[in-house]
Amino acid sequence: MARGEQIYTVREFLNINGVYEHHGIDCGDGTVIHYRKGTETIERTSKAYFTDARKVYIKRYPLRYIPDTVIQRAESRLGERKYNIIFNNCEHFATWCLTGVGYSQQVKNFVPLLNHIDVEQISEQIKKAIFSEKTKVDTHELLNQALADIKVAWENIQPEYKQSLEEVNNWEKVAVTALKKNGKI
Known about the structure:
Layout: E1 6-13, E2 16-26, E3 31-36, E4 41-46, H1 47-51, E5 57-59, H2 67-76, H3 90-99, H4 105-114, H5 119-131, H6 139-181
Antiparallel strand pairs: 1-2, 1-5, 2-3, 3-4
Helix pairs in contact: 2-3, 5-6
């Protein structure tokens, strides 16, 4: 790992390994700047805290800022509490530090899948998987709350997501038209 790199670890959710990636900026001094889980605040923590003994990967980009600029950009947002899983998560933050664009491949890959999820159908399957083993946690309540949260999140982000897609398509048309006009296509 090198100073100013976007690093990530693969994390678990509901005791299922490999569900999502947690991203941050390696400061090169044994610390990482990232959206800290639990506080949803951009903080500088030890690399050991960030990795939590997990394997670390580097996200590479063909074009990016130099390491000093990446660190300055990350430090400029220390203390920020604007976390949003769809529009401003740890990957958006780290990608912005390196490229100037807040982007999350995980969200891009996940959001279209929500259209195909039948919450009622998967609910029974998840219940069977969870309740097949005795547990001290009220997993039924946790499951119902998680499914309700997914449904609310989807209903809340859908209009904004559609508007963002429309804006991307419009700008793409403008760019193609400009390139054609200048003889580049």
